[in-house]
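Changelog-linked ticket: zinc ion example.
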Amino acid sequence: MARGDFKRRMEASQRQMLEWARGRNGADELSGACTNVAVALVIVDLFAHTTWLSILALVLLGYSWFRITSKRVGARSLENARVLKATGPIVPFLANPVGALREARAYVHLTCPSCGQRVRIPRGKGKVRITCPKCHARFEGKA
Ligand SMILES: [Zn+2]
């Protein structure tokens, strides 16, 4: 097989994958969290030897795959937003623990007292005066 031939085949399969992914929901926080929890359950089950943990992991993986491949993008992103709102920082942490830890170490999150908007401030700035990006109220905080 010629080298150019291989490259052409790779490009063709990449095009097919992009074509397949078009119009689908793709990975989001909820599907990422389900996948990571499923992997954790499988690891636990390696030692615990229960059947139901593996079945639960399979169900979570199935649900995650359903979310990633779903063509009803509006409905899926609404569900994702609802779960993110209801669970606070838990789902982003489960979806991407390394990124969430890095975020928590680098920034302080403050809440605007007048509208409830969350504002992100780099850690170690000391006492700061903040103008809320949403309602333009001014308040002080420690970062
Ligand atoms: Zn505000």
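Closing comment: Example verified and attached. Strands lie at 107-111, 118-122, 127-131, 138-142. The longest strand covers residues 107-111.
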